[in-house]
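Good morning,

Attaching, inline, the backbone tokens for the sequence recovery test we're adding to the shared suite. The designed sequence is right after.
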């Protein structure tokens, strides 16, 4: 999405734009990794399976958690705008937003690159085409996976708690404003902030909660023959639901970015005018044809 439409009207909105750009980058990279995942399931090639197990799976994992973290940053930014409307807090500056974004990407890329290097150095040779990635994994990769699978739910849980807290605090402020009968303009802004926070939290829960609920039993029972295959299908479905955030994130852009919203409305108006013009030209052509036919009939 073209976020140059979102002007930096104030410091807080500029930092928001940075987080939205990073969320867009995570969505874009996630889309790029999907063809390899599809090819992995459609093909029986060992090379394709190795590529997916070494790069494709961790790319989806990386960008999913990048989306989770940046959605948390966006929620924190909106909450700070409520408690610090002047935008003077250090966390609302562009410089801080850039630093936080860089640290986040480094934090996510280091384990991803480490995993990929370990995979190629220590991968176990296979004689047949495996149905999953586990036969390629050495003991060091399995240990690394255990650490990552322990840390990632903690990240998700922390972000979830923060987002619920931000929404709860925003709702309390709206209730206090309504009870104290503050000026309608200030109260309306708080209501709009609560709506935006609700949109963000709803998309976050719809996309990422099912994946993490399914992941816990899968990580414990995936090797069990009786339930392992069922849990594998559940994980695939919930992974696709998590990937669906790529389609829902534009809703976040629309509600949180005023200039982007104005541009979309402008595009819609231009499209409607163009369609109306085309329809009027077509009706005019039909009228001309009918008049010619009537003239020929008269003659």
């Amino acid at each position: 999405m073209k976020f140059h439409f979102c002007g930096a009207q104030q410091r807080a909105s500029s930092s928001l734009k940075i987080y939205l750009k990073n969320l867009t980058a995570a969505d874009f990279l996630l889309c790029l990794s999907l063809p390899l995942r599809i090819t992995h399931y459609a093909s029986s090639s060992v090379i394709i399976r190795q590529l997916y197990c070494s790069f494709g799976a961790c790319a989806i994992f990386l960008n999913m958690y990048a989306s989770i973290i940046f959605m948390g940053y966006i929620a924190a930014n909106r909450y700070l705008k409520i408690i610090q409307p002047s935008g003077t807090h250090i966390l609302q500056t562009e410089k801080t937003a850039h630093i936080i974004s860089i640290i986040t990407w480094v934090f996510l890329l280091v384990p991803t690159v480490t995993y990929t290097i370990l995979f190629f150095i220590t991968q176990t040779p296979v004689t047949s085409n495996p149905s999953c990635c586990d036969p390629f994994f050495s003991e060091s990769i399995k240990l690394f996976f255990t650490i990552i699978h322990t840390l990632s739910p903690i990240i998700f849980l922390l972000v979830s708690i923060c987002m619920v807290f931000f929404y709860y605090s925003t709702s309390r402020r709206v209730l206090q404003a309504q009870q104290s009968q503050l000026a309608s303009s200030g109260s309306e802004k708080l209501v709009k902030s609560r709506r935006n926070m609700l949109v963000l939290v709803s998309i976050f829960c719809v996309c990422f909660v099912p994946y993490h609920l399914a992941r816990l039993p899968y990580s414990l029972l995936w090797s069990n023959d009786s339930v392992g295959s069922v849990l594998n299908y559940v994980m695939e479905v919930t992974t696709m639901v998590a990937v669906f955030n790529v389609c829902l994130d534009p809703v976040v852009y629309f509600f949180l970015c005023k200039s982007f919203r104005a541009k979309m409305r402008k595009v819609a108006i231009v499209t409607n005018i163009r369609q109306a013009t085309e329809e009027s030209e077509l009706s005019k052509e039909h009228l001309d044809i009918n008049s010619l036919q009537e003239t020929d009939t008269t003659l």
